[in-house]
Specification:
The protein has 360 residues and is α/β, with parallel strands linked by helices. The chain has helices at residues 39-45, 81-89, 152-165, 197-202, 212-223, 245-256, 272-281, 294-299; strands spanning 2-7, 19-24, 31-35, 50-54, 66-70, 93-97, 119-121, 131-138, 146-147, 150-151, 172-178, 182-190, 229-236, 259-265, 286-287, 311-315, 331-332, 338-340, 345-350, 355-359. Helix 7 (272-281) links the parallel strand 14 and strand 15 (286-287). A 6-stranded mixed beta sheet has the order 12-11-8-13-14-15, with helices on both faces. Helix 5 runs parallel beside helix 6 (245-256) and helix 6 packs parallel to helix 7. It is 21% helix and 28% strand. The longest helix has 14 residues, at 152-165.
Length: 360
Amino acid sequence: YHKISARLVDSDYFNQNNVFYKTVKVVPKPKVLLVSSNSELKQLFGPLYDLDLVNNITYDYGPYTAIIIDDVPAEELNDKTDLLADYITEGNGMFVVGGKNSYDFGDYNNSRFEQLLPVFVAKAGKQRGDVNIVFVLDISLSTGEGFGGYTKVDVEKALAIGMLNNISLSHNVGFVVFNTLSYVIAELKPLSEHTILNNRISALNFFSGTKIDNGLLAAIDMLQNVGGSKNIILISDGRNNLGTSPVLEVANYASSLGIRIYTVGVGGDTFVEFMQEIADTTNAAYFQPDTTQQIKIIFGDTEVSGDKRVFPLNVIDNNHFITHGLDLTAKLYGFNQVVPKNSAKMIVTTDVGDPIVGVW
């Protein structure tokens, strides 16, 4: 521990507040094992950690809080999978970097090592007709309050219509609104068949109290027996009449059914932490109104990278501790083909949605 004091020397009538004290605790750098033949990664991680660099993965992970595996083929990793699984289960970390000897180039597909990763090795892409999305929109009395020169509900409706315009017409879409009760204004079917949905949304009015859990339960009822991916987009200020507990119970229930709840906060008084917690519970993401263009990357028409040589990056979840406050300007010049597992979260993609950083 280091105790630091700073004293202001002046002719001050009240001299009691002229001294500032601070205590700094210095701790050893975390001990990390880097499995790599890449000296550049050593330069990157060396100043941050007590780093040991090896060319081949070892059997002794005891001294290390994390292992970084850089571009290593499956044949060198499969016989270490059980040991690595035990190591991770004990609360340690593993960061697997791609390259020309790993993932789709390193025979990770259907390997034992692939079981430890948040992704499958496969060609990425949004499958047509296999994505289900239910919008859940708050029309309670609190959404009649002003926000940015409009009412909150007007902003919510504009956001919902904007997001619908960014979703692939082949995806199945349903729409639920709620106050103290829930109301289905559009059943789950291909978006191309919802010819008057925008008009129905525009005509919505606000009234009564707020029970977010009722809105979510109606959406879950739509999704639980369908095939493909199951997603909810909740648009609300997060102010629930009966507190957070009922909503979080429903979010946990949705997660157990493989349903993700993406949340969008609207209003200066949005309960941001609560909306983030709902999304985190289901491995989804929270969006501010000005970041909802991310919905196009997640659920838009299938795009392919084609003959592109440079790939701009996009942060999907700005609230994850890895990406929080990160201004990501880097570009990639190649990537491995992977698909996220249902229990994983993508936090960084290319500009057309190719998975780049996945966590679980």
